[in-house]
Amino acid sequence: MIASVEALRATRAEAEYADVRKRPAVAYALWATCGLLGGHRFYLGDTGRSIAMLFTFGGLGLWTLVDVFLIAGRVREVNRVRRADAFARHGLVEATVEPHPHRGAGAHRPLGTVAGLHGT
Predict the structure, then answer these.
(1) How would you class 43 by CB atoms within 10 Å of its CB: exposed for 0-12, middle for 13-18, buried for 19 or more?
(2) What is the DSSP letter of 93?
(3) Would 108 be classed as within a structural domain?
(4) Taken in order 100, 67, 35, 22, is the CA torsion positive or negative?
(5) What percent of the chain has pLDDT over 70?
(6) 113-118 average pLDDT score
């Protein structure tokens, strides 16, 4: 009985994650069509950087060119955080997300911990 409840919670968490997951193909398509205006950054939730790109035309194109190499990693990072958040809401994992080493301490959203699963 308990295993079936856990399986149901896992299935619900996976479905929730599937609804909010970002896709690399969409990010690259937005980069190709409106990269100078930061469309791919808006899609990934990087609002501050998106606005900066919007008003500088992608750093006069330089920032946009660099982003083609950064998109895949950023999509993976965004999806990792979104998956951890979805599973934490269902009480399945400890929901602490470490900051990205290149983006600094303010670049992540701490998700808290799930009661009883912290281990301390």
Answers:
(1) buried
(2) S
(3) no
(4) negative
(5) 77
(6) 38
Around Cβ 63, how many Cβ atoms within 10 Å? 19
CA distance 87 to 105: 23
The rounded distance, in Å, linking the Cα atoms of 86 and 15 is 9
Residue 10 lies in a domain: yes
The first and second tokens of residue 48, run together, are 């501050």
Domain tally, the chain: 1
Radius of gyration for the alpha carbons in the chain, expressed in angstroms and rounded: 17
Asked if the structure places residue 52 within a domain, the reply is: yes
CA angle 103, 18, 98 (to 5 degrees): 25
The 10s digit of each residue's pLDDT in 54-104 is 999 999 999 999 999 999 999 999 999 999 999 999 888 754 556 555 554
SS3 114: coil
Question: Tokens 């409840």 — which residue?
Answer: 5
- Enter the tokens of residue 53: 């790109």
